[in-house]
Amino acid sequence: MDVEIITIGDELLIGQVVDTNSVWMAKELEKEGFRVTWKTAVGDVDTHISEAIDAAMKRAKVVLLTGGIGPTKDDITRNTLCRYFDSGLHFSEEVYQNILQMFHCSGREMNALTRLQAMVPDKCTVVRNRAGTAPCMWFDRDGRVLVSMPGVPHEMQWLMTNEIIPRLTQVFGRDAYIRHHTVWVTGYSESALALTLESFEAELPPFVKLAYLPQAGLIRLRLSACTGSDEKALQAIAGEKEKLHTLLGCHILSEEDKAPEALIGEALLAKGLRMGTAESCTGGTIASKITSVAGSSRYFAGSVVSYSNHVKRGLLGVSERDLQEHGAVSREVVEQMARGALQALDCDCVVATSGIAGPEGGTADKPVGMVWIAVGRKGEVISRCFRFGSTLREVNIARASNTALLMLLELLNKAV
Amino acid sequence: MDVEIITIGDELLIGQVVDTNSVWMAKELEKEGFRVTWKTAVGDVDTHISEAIDAAMKRAKVVLLTGGIGPTKDDITRNTLCRYFDSGLHFSEEVYQNILQMFHCSGREMNALTRLQAMVPDKCTVVRNRAGTAPCMWFDRDGRVLVSMPGVPHEMQWLMTNEIIPRLTQVFGRDAYIRHHTVWVTGYSESALALTLESFEAELPPFVKLAYLPQAGLIRLRLSACTGSDEKALQAIAGEKEKLHTLLGCHILSEEDKAPEALIGEALLAKGLRMGTAESCTGGTIASKITSVAGSSRYFAGSVVSYSNHVKRGLLGVSERDLQEHGAVSREVVEQMARGALQALDCDCVVATSGIAGPEGGTADKPVGMVWIAVGRKGEVISRCFRFGSTLREVNIARASNTALLMLLELLNKAV
Predict the structure, then answer these.
(1) With contacts defined as CB-CB under 8 Å, which chain B residues touch A195?
(2) Looking at the partner chain, which of A26, A201, A305 has a beta carbon nearest the beta carbon of B15?
């Protein structure tokens, strides 16, 4: 069943607010087989709201609105809905009691504006909003449904979970099952991967889609099956997943939709190892990724962010001579950083980075985007030089960090 | 001038990706007087893309597309555009040379698919994309403009800033002037700030808007004036800015729309000081924020991320006794971390953090979200305990990092 979402509010258009509501809604709807096929964001403008509603109601059986139904002047959606459905307004004692209760719970004072929220369209079914004061309005027309919800995330989420999705499932039953499988692929550019998978893609059944979601140095590859039977969807995904494996083999970093830092954590826990980082150009980004994972204190010892040569020498024992001879961005220095970190942080494996993030500081032989990365454990240090080739500082830092995590993951996967 | 944005890609509909592109675009467009009035998100479906384009071209003079023009099969926008504008495709040597150069810079190999990206519609003006391989396509029709850009954020951003916005301004001139003034406010909750500014907001002229953009521990407060005369807009902003100052005084952290890490960099350069960080619960996030600023190597010495007590003792000289007696999350330890970092990193000022990011590891007297933060310079260390009170790890880390940066900024502002 196709669903459209319309988000209402100037703040969504002028760049004040990032729309995470529709993202949350899409995920929850999908679990019950409802697929979001179209999203529209309009401001608090009567003509725009009604045009968006009209177009959506022509395309989809289910149209979900969020926002624009607060107590303040700029929220006009309720009146627009009355016009669109040719409906009057009436005072709902039931809604009013709910509002009173809400205010009582939060210890706030009622005011005239809030009382107005108890005015609801005659032609809608009011769905009680136990998470807030703005009533949720459910309209039926010619076998199509339009639901208007508040834009406040926790109110919308409470309504979707407890009222709207259950009712939609009841009304429309379930005509589709959607299953995904996402793998992380490394060692390919997006186009190189597409070439490798050309015939695989061509042979996919029509109800299975393949999507490429490239990230700095990595590609998330998503298989989606959408069909009338859950079993069929699961079988298709399982089958195609097998083929992907045969085609990509060791390039598949993970069978799960997990970030490298999470996979590293699992590998370290499984092997009972502890890690650390020695970072120059990545400036702590690798450490912050590793420690973004809950429980990372069980395997993350720490990090030395050695921006200055003084710190490279003092805390990591990099030799002054090599810094002079080869420069900070060199195999010699990055490998000494790795060895120094193994010792200073007293851990089993480390990753070290030294490069030129840019935009300044590049030279002919050491251009912006050139980064040396070393991974090591006691008795073994491997280093490689990369040219991430962007003039954008954040891009080079992101690529260097992801690549460093991948090199560490490889080391862990082969380590006994 | 009204602008519509159409974002293309299944990932935007199924909840896999949060759309931050259109948010960035809206902000940048507004600076030149272009206002986003409508946003549409559709999947990689030919009929949906063309319907969205058709509707948008009827409403707005400027329609901006992002996404769906990569080299892979799931990206079909280019062909849809050809059909919509009734245009053929031809091979562009110029685009091909750009692609070659891109691949050369990043040291990757060309392949057939990437070569295909040099196929461009006859009826469009190709805008060179110096940030990536996908060409940007500019279509003119009946005084209206449609521009198709890649969805990769840094490519889209490069194109918007360097090519698209300047060209749009050239073509359409400007019918509105939008002026903003943003201040960073600290020490208020959003609602407390709203109460303080209640009458100020009520008295704002109709063409001036106030926006609250709360961030972890901080609130960006934005005044926007949109009117036909730039002088009028500037005057209004200047006046309201004055009033804000009188109302908020020392709670205004900065008069500029700059992140704390940028302000810290400027303060350090002005005073000729170098800084470092000693991070436990923030795990390198503060260091990565500081080093995200170009040129930070001039004032950032480095960081010790001391997750393990071994590192706290070994590299920062924290006393074993205090770790035992008071625990790692304590005034004693965080202050010793600060002093140790001043010495180990040989810098003039430091910030240190030790806390419980969660979701695990909290106790009755040291709950999840409790963080000790110390800032110091030679001879002076100040520490405070915060309870950020979220059960979400990322929220506590973000709040602790921002708060630490603010404490350092305060120290620098008062330092002689």
Answers:
(1) 111-113
(2) A26
**Distance (Å, whole) CA B299 – CA A189:** 36
The CATH superfamily of B260-414 is CinA-like (3.90.950.20)
A59 three-class SS: helix
Which CATH fold would you assign to the domain B2-172?
Answer: Molybdenum Cofactor Biosythetic Enzyme; Chain A (3.40.980)
Q: Are A399 and A216 in contact (CB under 8 A)?
A: yes
* Token reading at B92: 């562009």
Residues of chain A neighbouring B27 (CB-CB closer than 8 A): 14-15
CA–CA gap between residue B297 and residue B344 (Å, rounded)? 17
Residue A201 to residue B73, Cβ atoms within 8 A: yes
Please provide the DSSP assignment of A233-265 as one string.
Answer: HHHHHHHHHHHHHHHHGGGEEESSS--HHHHHH
CB neighbour class for A108 (10 Å; exposed up to 12, middle 13-18, buried from 19): exposed
Q: Would you call A19 and B14 a contact, using CB atoms and an 8 Å cutoff?
A: no
Q: How far is A357 from chain B (nearest CA, A)?
A: 8
Structure tokens at B313: 């003792």
Of B295, B316, B296, the closest CA to residue B306 belongs to: B316
Nearest to A238 by CA among A191, A205, A199, A196: A205
Residues of B in contact with A210 (CB under 8 A): 73-74
Alpha-carbon gap: A329 to the closest alpha carbon of chain B (Å): 14
Domain boundaries, chain B: 2-172, 177-254, 260-414
CATH code linked to domain B177-254: 3.30.70.2860
This prediction has a pTM of 0.74
* Cα gap A88→A284, rounded to integer Å: 60
Using an 8 Å CB-CB cutoff, list chain B residues near A25.
Answer: 15
pLDDT in tens, B304-360: 999 999 999 999 999 999 999 999 999 999 999 999 999 999 999 999 999 999 989
The answer to whether the CB atoms of B15 and A35 lie below 8 A apart is: no
The closest CB to that of A212, out of B72, B114, B346, belongs to B72
Q: Residue A355: count other Cβ atoms within 10 Å of its Cβ.
A: 27
> Which pLDDT tens digit goes with each residue over B222-257?
888 988 899 999 999 999 999 999 999 888 877 777
- Residues of chain A contacting B213 with CB distance shorter than 8 Å: 16
Cis status, amide bond into A260, omega within 30 of 0: no
Q: CA-to-CA distance for A233 and A236, rounded, in angstroms? A: 5
CB contact under 8 Å between A393 and B20, yes or no, is no
Measured distance CA(B15)–CA(B184) in Å, rounded: 32
**Could you give the ipTM of this predicted complex?**
0.74
Is B305 within 8 Å of A306 when comparing Cβ atoms?
Answer: no
